[in-house]
Amino acid sequence: MSASLRVATLPSRDPAIPRHDWTLEEVEALFELPFMDLLFRAAELHRQHFDPNELQRSQLLSIKTGGCPENCGYCSQSQSFDTGVAASALMPLAEVIAQATAAKAGGAQRFCMGAAWRDVKPRDLPKVTAMIAGVKALGLETCATLGMLSRDQAVALKDAGLDYYNHNLDTGPDYYDTVVTTRAYQDRLDTLSAVRDAGLSTCCGGIIGMGETRRDRAGLLHQLATLPAHPESLPINDLVPIPGTPLGDSSAVDGLEFVRMIAVARLVCPKAVVRLSAGREQMSRELQALCFLAGANSIFVGDRLLTTSNPAREADEAFLADLKMRPMA
Ligand code: SAM
Ligand code: DTB
Ligand code: SF4
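Above: the input entities. Below: the structure tokens describing the complete assembly.
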């Protein structure tokens, strides 16, 4: 083999070109960089793929709340924990469309419908596909997060007009069993594979602040960065501690560690839209701005997430105006 051919087939080390061969040790080493070097590298890479003054805006709606048979230790909606969140039936179509219409009027670009399900039951699929089609017809991007999917269900959602499917890996593989025991990491990977193969865009990320180590955080990002395709959307949630759950008494993660998480996500998945997701109410404006500098370029807008609150729309509007940040084109 000639030298030039050998060079051409070596894995690229141009940080702007996405890699899928990250090692866990490489991801850990990024976390260990001096903070200013990490932030600078992430901000520089961010600018190669995105306008740093633009933010993507998604809005959530819980279309089916509570009573979930899974036991995710962070979640208000698991039937295993007494959190005060009552189980409700699937929301009627007209109510979903009304909420999506209001979300669009409030500036949301994507509407994400969440259900507290382990998986999608055959009787619910047509109801959900009607919601997706209706939201899509409003001119919004569509996202759903409904638990595990079969391959056929993923195709049905795609055919109905679904753009994104959210299914988080949540933490590194070694810590997963500490947080949830009713399913395995591989179950999550299998659904992500069905989602990709159906031609849906993947929204996949996780939570920090569940008592995990930095190695577990690197483990999550390592998993995401070595998937066959990087997630198009990468949410990083700061745990919102829910009284009554096993993680209800968790102590907050240091803000600078949260910024590191965002920066490393940006470096290992350079083309992903990284979302500063749950937990913004717990953060100062300055910390959020540091997250945007580190490469976060999406937020949830609207006063509610699924069962918890989010910064008020007016407060966010004022904040983003102060930063002179614009909706993503
Ligand atoms: N039941 C579906 C599932 O688990 O895939 C969809 C809904 S579930 C609420 C979606 C994601 O929300 C979880 O994977 C987790 O990352 C995030 N989440 C849930 N509760 C949270 C909390 N208290 N704090 C931060 N993130 C949370
Ligand atoms: C994601 O990563 N975060 C969102 C969305 N995907 C579904 C959910 C956050 C939920 C926060 C807790 C609650 O409101 O219940
Ligand atoms: Fe159920 Fe999803 Fe909550 Fe887990 S995170 S308990 S699967 S709603």
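Note for the figure: Strands lie at 54-64, 110-115, 141-145, 164-166, 201-203, 206-208, 233-238, 273-276, 296-300, 326-327.
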